[in-house]
Amino acid sequence: MFMMQYTHRLPADYDMRLIQKRAAERGPYWDSYPGLIFKGFLVQTMGRSSANAYSSLYLWRDAEAFTAMVTGERFQAVIDAFGRPAVETFAVLAFAQGPASSARFVHRVDELVPQHANLQRLKEAEMQAALQQAGTGGTHAAIAALDVTNWCLTRFLLSEAESAEASPISIDYEIAYFAKSSA
């Protein structure tokens, strides 16, 4: 599995209803997209967050599916609308499906991986943590992913409810549309 996320920071006075409308209109075109496990159209709104932002979070079955999308017309539409974003890419260390059939919120936590860390043990520990987290009610998925450019471990919790774990190292998003594979 392979993950990617990109974010567009928007002006404080940006009408976020335009993003909600965009997600509602374009989201269904991503349902059952080849190689895609899910795509979250994510928003942060001033007042609930410190700024307005529009973000996309993808979980791919493999890197080939990611490559086909990022070189295709759908990603070109993003570039045409918002400019070329900086795209974060991640190798998935752990993925655990929860009991919820969909998700309304994403909670993201980033943590630097210490230089001396045993990466195999890290992967094993993250898989156990993801399985435990996925077992809680309201969880759609728990994912641990590794950015090997910056050696950062990122945990994503997709759930029906907002996270109560706000911290300086966490980012919370509301999902405007959740596209997922039917397979």
Low-confidence spans: none
**Spatial order of strands in the largest sheet:** 1-3-2-8-5-7-6-4
Structural class assignment: alpha+beta
SSE order, one letter for each helix or strand: EHEEHHEEHEEE
| Structure summary, number of beta strands | 8
Write the layout of secondary structure elements.
Blueprint: E1 2-10, H1 17-26, E2 36-44, E3 52-60, H2 63-70, H3 73-82, E4 88-97, E5 105-112, H4 119-134, E6 139-147, E7 152-159, E8 170-180
Antiparallel strand pairs: 1-3, 1-4, 2-3, 2-8, 4-6, 5-7, 5-8, 6-7
What does this structure look like?
The chain is α+β, with helices and mostly antiparallel strands and 183 residues long. It has one domain (2-180): Alpha-Beta Plaits (2-Layer Sandwich), CATH 3.30.70. Helices cover 24% and strands 40% of the residues. An eight-stranded antiparallel barrel has the order 1-3-2-8-5-7-6-4. Strand 2 and strand 3 form a beta hairpin. The longest helix is centred in the C-terminal third of the chain and has 16 residues, at 119-134.
